[in-house]
Design goal:
single chain, 240 residues, alpha/beta, Rossmann fold, six-stranded parallel β-sheet, 10 helices, globular
Amino acid sequence: MSFSHELHLARAEERGDWARVKRVGVFGGSFDPVHRGHWNAASLAQAAFDLERIVFVPAASPPHKPGRSLAGGPDRAHMLALAITSRPDWSISTMELERPGLSYTIDTLRELPGRLGLARDVQLFLILGNDNLRGFERWKDVHEILERASPIVVLRDAKNSSALEKIRTALAPGAVARLERGLLANAPLAIDATSLRAALARGEAPAGMDPKVAAYARAKNLYVAPPQVGRTATDPASGA
């Protein structure tokens, strides 16, 4: 894929000597678009677990969001780059955008150390949002995920009890204990990405986003639905 100047500078491969870094957070997601809730979750996780670096990994095709149309990968990565310009300790990996097929977390965790030249004793931490708990026990090779990376789950509220109970029932006790050690009770910002996309489609500048990111999304019309060719107000298919 081609990289914008901002994205090139923000790529993990361009940001320092990784061989000396011992604690790395990996934050995957669709980031459609990236917003202050993501920023807040990353900041909370970094402070609570003393992370030296965080790598954001935008997904090409998230398996837990089947059928949902995302903004293009290069655009989502570019918005991430705009959002982290002031953070030299945060960077972006485009590996999932370059890899064909669904974006599985386990594949990223297997590939990331070699791609960045991380030391053998590096500690990886997988940053998970509140919504990731639902169905986490069904993620591909979930036990290996928990062996390769210590999870950090940034909880939004108390509505996770049923999701946690399913995980406790489905996973081995050691895996459950590893997950529970990473539960972060600090309440993150509650921002609805669907509402952000709707606001951007109306040409607004949502408060929950970095202004540079919102301006880019509006300039590129990323969330404006394309006109339906050949239909009129009296077309029965329009529901009028």
